[in-house]
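Here is one chain, start to finish.
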Amino acid sequence: MLAKEKRRAAWSLAIGIVAAGCAAAWIEWQAHDLENQARVLVAKYEAVPLPVSRNAKGETEKVEKICDPADFTPADPSFQFTGDLKEIADKRESAKTIRETTAFWTGVIFGVFGIPLVWYFLLDRIREISGAISGRDQQTLNRSTTAGCRRHRRLARCRQRRVASIP
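Its structure:
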């Protein structure tokens, strides 16, 4: 690859890494925010006192309050939470889904920024193949495609004159 192409590809990769990292941090922040909202709802519902329940003998019964869907395992797989538990379960499920898709989205973002690197790599391979087919070597090919060809030719002529003038 030419120097200009290498710089452009390197900048593209650097920006891609930064953008993918920022996207991953933002996605993780969203998932964390949903988890915090679920925790706040659980704490809110746990703070509400339970009504006193009495059995037939008039004794108070211990009633267990389940506010966190994670603590409750239903026997029926088709069970659906209702009311407040549904809200908490939905927030937790959303956070889980968001975390599971983080790798995919950061890969897509990095891939988009990696396109220039792939493009310049392919151009370099095409130059090599065309140079091999036409009989030009890689050094001649690079010299002829660099910016400022006149300057390179002048420098080459100056070097030839110096070499020729040395006895």
